[in-house]
Amino acid sequence: MASSVLSYNIFNEVVLPTSVIGPESVAFDLGGGGPYVTVSDGRILKWQGSNVGFVDFAYTSPNRTKELCDGTNDLDLGPICGRPLALSFDYRTSDIYITDAFFGLLVVGFNGGLATQLSTGYKYLSGIDVESYSRHVYMTDASLTYDISSVLSYNIFNEVVLPTSVIGPESVAFDLGGGGPYVTVADGRILKWQGSNVGFVDFAYTSPNRTKELCDGTNDLDLGPICGRPLALSFDYRTSDIYITDAFFGLLVVGFNGGLATQLSTGYKYLSGIDVESYSRHVYMTDASLTYDIRNITQPGFTPDSTGRLLKYDPYNQTVTVLLSGLSGVGGPTANIHRDCVLVPESVNKTIIRYWLEGPKVGTTEVFLTDCGDVKNIKRGATDGEYWVATSVLDVQQGIRVNESATVLETVSFTQFGNMTITVAQEKNNALYVGSSHADFVGNYTN
Q1: Judgement on whether residues 90 and 171 belong to the same structural domain of the protein
Q2: What are 265-283's pLDDT values in tens digits?
Q3: Core-most of 22, 87, 209, 318, by most CB within 10 Å?
Q4: pLDDT, tens digit (0-9, with 9 covering 90-100), for 383-410
């Protein structure tokens, strides 16, 4: 009994060659030789003992060159270098069958070298197993819609650190030139990132009564009526103005030089999300409740009500129109690129609603996406017709990339945030920027 409990309890590393990573699959030949492993630079390597280490055994791409590919982990080079994911021996022939993310199903003989392509046309061929008696090869095709580039995108994490004692970057935005990120923070300011040598600097603020001595670094919501609490921001790219929703000061706008924002519309209990559709210049906002404000949500036993609203502000005549009411746990909305609908998240119902602005369904709603967790915000993606949804699913912080047809294209887990609820995932400059009301940093995810 003791030997069973303590089996496999001694660990050693079988180290890959320098700069090589990604041994996703491991196999042994009929004589016990190996391990043979797939690696991220397109090769299958074979272990030749501790005196020799791993040596090249096979590869999947006919275009692969050692100069370009050895040691790479760049998926953009996959169509040249290959990316073998799994391998399995046919012990009757000693052939190795291989699934490659770019080259499909292949086979290579016991002498190795360039593998022979057997079957292609897959989006993401992944797992494999050979049943050697029948010699049937069983494979798994991970998706008909996404490929490995989607699965492994945004997997490198860095912190864009806020100034000392400052927390709460709930919203993230970039100006027309790609400058930023601009972030809202808990002490009432909008900060702008000026690069790693400078860091974040003051850009704008929402309260005319704010003082740096009292407010800088605070997270006290009782000081909100003095310091302000901007929750969301969105650029009007036609004017470079930033529209801001503040939990205490309503809807505001500030020019590209920053400073004190101008109040446009007030009288809300809890104005929260915002999106500017820059062609029409219409501003879409969400009002979380008619009964509670931001200070109530931290009280024990708090539950959201169903009095949330979707609003539209018209900058040409300075009017606010109620588009939708009766929303539960409403989050940050986004207009689509066609300007004919707005997507609105409801965290209580774990759904995203589509509200039609134009066309035969104008003024009506329909469910866009269900079972998408505690949704906080939706932002347009870098690719037209795609969106990033910031959500929490079973306490795991996630970004979900979806298209106009509500097809989920990708899910990225933001494990670095732990139990800190994320509030936004904004794609820009080949990176994904993630904010949270509890963090002292903005998460920067790259490939």
Answers
A1: no
A2: 999 999 999 999 989 999 9
A3: 87
A4: 999 999 999 998 899 999 999 999 888 8
Give the pair of three-digit tokens for residue 320. Answer: 């606010």
Domain match, 187 and 121 both: no
Number of folded domains in the chain? 2
One domain, residues 266 and 306: yes
Contact 139, 431 (CB under 8 A): no
Q: Are 428 and 415 in contact (CB under 8 A)?
A: no
Short-list 336, 351, 317, 436, CA closest to 384: 336
Range of the domain at 357: 156-446
- Report the CATH number that the domain containing residue 46 is assigned in CATH: 2.120.10.30
Read off the pTM.
Answer: 0.74
The answer, yes or no, to whether residue 2 has pLDDT greater than 70, is no
User: Could you give phi then psi for residue 25, rounded to 5 degrees?
Assistant: -135, 145
Type and span of the H or E element at 69: helix 66-69
Alpha carbon distance 350, 372 (integer Å): 5
CA distances from 428 to 32, 225, 435 (A): 49, 33, 14
In this structure, are residues 101 and 148 in contact, taking their beta carbons and an 8 Å threshold?
A: yes
Distance of CA 233 to CAs 173, 185, 196, 243, Å? 7, 11, 23, 6
In angstroms, rounded to a whole number, what is the distance separating the alpha carbons of residues 154 and 446? 4
Rounded Cα distance, 184 and 166, in Å: 11
Strands of the sheet with 156-161, listed across from one edge: 156-161, 441-446, 431-436, 422-428
Strand 113-114 with 54-59, pairing? parallel
Query: Are residues 427 and 411 part of one domain?
Result: yes
- Tokens representing residue 209 in the block: 């009564």
Residues 198 and 240 in one domain: yes
Question: Do 185 and 95 belong to one domain?
Answer: no
DSSP strand pairing (386-393 vs 377-380)? antiparallel
Residue 109 sits in the same domain as residue 170: no
**Scanning the structure block, which residue is given the tokens 């689509």?**
336
